[in-house]
Design the sequence.
């Protein structure tokens, strides 16, 4: 089954996350500049004109669609690369993908998601059901 990861991360962690994902073979992803706030409700800034609240902070949303067998490894890589330990580090959402179709070829499902050099290509020969190698 295919899964979609939507990770909301700090702008200053984008390169760390991109590099970490590339190292494990994640070659297909999308990034969007977004604004929002979480529990902290934004930040208070103090300037010459006084203190004011900035409640919609700039963030980056990273979207990745991948096979379920690569999900946990990818989540762990994002968690490690995006971590600062401060409020506002972000969130990761995971949802099922019902269908994927590559427009150019008509390929469907996981076949439509495979790229030379991607995480699945790097793991060729590793069986998912193999307790030693598939874990």
Sequence:
């Amino acid at each position: 089954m295919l899964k979609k990861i939507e990770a909301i991360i700090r702008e200053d962690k984008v390169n760390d996350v991109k590099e970490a994902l590339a190292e494990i073979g994640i070659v297909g992803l999308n990034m969007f500049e977004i604004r929002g706030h979480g529990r902290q409700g934004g930040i208070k800034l103090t300037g010459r004109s006084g203190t004011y609240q900035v409640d919609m902070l700039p963030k980056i949303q990273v979207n990745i669609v991948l096979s379920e067998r690569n999900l946990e490894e990818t989540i762990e890589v994002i968690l490690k690369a995006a971590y600062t330990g401060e409020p506002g580090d972000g969130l990761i959402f995971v949802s099922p993908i019902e269908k994927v179709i590559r427009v150019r070829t008509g390929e469907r499902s996981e076949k439509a998601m495979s790229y030379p050099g991607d995480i699945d290509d790097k793991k060729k020969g590793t069986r998912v059901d193999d307790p030693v190698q598939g874990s």
